[in-house]
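REQUEST ID: PR-0412
SUBMITTED BY: lab tech R.K.
PRIORITY: routine
TASK: structure prediction, single protein chain
INPUT:
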Amino acid sequence: MNNDKKKLISIIVTIIIGIALGFFGVMVSVFSDGSTYERLITILVILILYGVLSLIIGFIRPVRPWGHMLALSLPGVIMLIFYTIKEFNFLYIVYIVLILLIVFFGTKSGKSLKKKRE
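STATUS: complete
OUTPUT:
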């Protein structure tokens, strides 16, 4: 398989993972009917998942991981933006920023780990 097909397949898989994490992670953490403590724990777990997945993506695809970074983070961010329009809460904006920052630094860290290993 040539490099373009591998890149396309990896982007599609990353988009599917991003959509699943956005729907079953981000939206569930926003819609959950628990205490504030339970919501914060759920959000922390989701952010850790974003960090681990972006670290893996940065390690696997160290050359220009921007597409993969956006494919992982944007589905959850877009779902959260649509929900924020319906019911505004400043903490949702913080959540969006944290998702983007964690995925960015995760891919950068994975990229640097790959370079150190080589």
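NOTES: Residues 3-31 form the longest helix (29 residues).
REVIEWED BY: pending
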